[in-house]
Specification:
Length: about 450
């Protein structure tokens, strides 16, 4: 069995090494970096030198998003702990009052400034960045979940999960791509993270079904051997780029090693080493509540097996076409129509039901995580969960504050059972990106600045 170094379509001259090549082994091609033109990649995690206690359960982060905001008069919280009072929209969280933090008044300034009432105010939910209104230049800032994945994603087999219920749409809406309305996780300014809506494919990503897994250690060994031969023919600058590339290959090796053993020699071990749920059917579920619960079950599975520590889940897309006729009293109305209700009392009542339904999904996730013991503390205690939307009053497209509920104790780093109100503290003190910096700190990722903020959220 041999591995071939083979150029692709870039021109190749006899006296020079082609700048774009692939390393091939048993039918698998791995692209080399763009030699002589690629920027040198830095290893931010090495610079940070973040330490974490491997004897304790790791902190997990998940963001659960619902579209088109809330009915404001029903979205409020007062008091503390078990005495906390919750508005009608939040009633499903009553059993978890001591596990949550209700946040009021945080916002993304670039959302408020954007003239596109929906697509200019949604994809930057987790980045606080400006959203390009040029349909030929899809551009959003990298999101905080992906900033986390860049730093700590190498510790798990799957660096991060991006999940959803509705598919990524490619149509235009008001002259802008619905990619903006379909993705809250962005791997770079111009590329959203791949969102998975099929439970079976997400299950296979986490567990593996033994099919089509060509990338094994023997292939990587061959690739590394040929890459070392190639290195002898490169200049100093390209050697450095190739070394950085080989580090990424070694990271794949480490992940394969982790996936091939079910026990650890020391420190914390996951409470689950084999999936405790059957593989979902290949087809996309047609029942919305069942689909949502199945996706959330996969988040729980991923966290319990320590397959990933970072996840996002979109319960609906922005401008959602989801029909909530499955709820009693909500007959044949699209979610988008219910949220843009013009204060019609009948539509407002149905809008409240959809808000409560979304909150029920968050409560389900809390219930599942709280039931899992990790040696003296629950999986919920070891998590940081954020439930949010990009708009407040969906009917008014109000972006000057966001509905946000946190849950979990982040391994003891977050005091729950509180209401924190930032609405009248001044814009510098109520930036959502300040919250993201604070949450990333609790995950062991310390950045001097993220999005439009260089300060942590006060009192969190």
């Amino acid at each position: 069995m041999t591995t071939i170094i083979q150029p692709v379509t870039a021109p190749c001259f006899a006296s020079r090494t082609s700048r774009r090549r692939f390393l091939y082994g048993t039918g698998v091609g791995l692209a080399l970096p763009w030699l002589e033109s690629s920027p040198v990649r830095s290893d931010d995690s090495a610079k940070l030198g973040t330490a974490y206690d491997s004897s304790q359960p790791p902190v997990r982060f998940a963001c659960l998003y619902f579209s088109n905001g809330v009915e404001p008069k029903h979205w409020w919280a007062r008091g503390r702990g078990s005495s906390m009072q919750l508005g009608p929209g939040l009633q499903p969280l009553l059993p978890y009052r001591e596990d949550i933090v209700f946040l009021r008044g945080l916002f993304n300034e670039q959302s408020v400034r954007n003239s596109s009432a929906h697509l200019g105010r949604m994809p930057n939910l987790l980045s606080g960045a400006w959203v390009s209104l040029d349909q030929n230049d899809i551009r959003v800032g990298r999101t905080m979940d992906q900033a986390l994945a860049k730093q700590i994603g190498h510790r798990t087999a799957v660096p991060s999960l991006a999940l959803g219920i509705e598919p990524t749409e490619l149509r235009l809406e008001d002259g802008l791509s619905m990619i903006y309305g379909s993705c809250i996780s962005w791997a770079s300014d111009t590329r959203p993270a791949t969102k998975e809506i099929y439970p079976a494919r997400a299950f296979d990503l986490l567990v593996g079904d033994g099919k089509g897994r060509k990338l094994d250690r023997s292939v990587l060994d061959q690739v590394l051997a040929d890459a070392k031969k190639l290195k002898l023919r490169l200049g100093q600058s390209d050697r450095k780029k190739l070394d950085e590339y080989l580090e990424s290959i070694r990271d794949i090796e480490n992940r394969i090693d982790r996936a091939s053993r079910e026990q650890r020699l020391e420190g914390w071990t996951p409470t689950l080493t084999e999936p405790n749920m059957v593989r979902p059917d290949d087809d996309l579920p047609q029942n919305v509540p069942d689909h949502m619960r199945l996706i959330l079950d996969l988040v729980v599975l991923a966290f319990q097996m320590d397959k990933t520590r970072i996840a996002t889940c979109m319960l609906n897309n922005d401008l959602s076409q989801m029909n909530f006729g499955f709820l009693d009293g909500v007959q044949g109305s699209l979610h988008l129509d219910l949220t843009h209700n013009g204060r019609d009392p009948a539509l407002e009542a149905m809008y409240l039901q959809t808000n409560q339904f979304h909150v029920q999904q968050f409560a389900y996730l809390l219930q599942r995580l709280k039931a899992i013991d990790e040696g003296g503390q629950t999986l919920l205690d070891s998590s940081l969960l954020m439930f949010c939307s990009n708009l407040f009053d969906g009917d008014k497209h109000q972006a000057d504050q966001m509905p946000i509920v946190l849950a979990g104790r982040g391994g003891g780093s977050l005091q729950t059972g509180r209401v924190l109100d930032y609405l009248n503290r001044g814009d510098e003190h109520r930036r959502a990106c300040s919250l993201y910096l604070s949450l990333m700190d609790r995950m062991g990722v310390h950045l001097p600045r993220f999005g439009d903020s260089n300060r942590r959220l006060a009192n969190l």
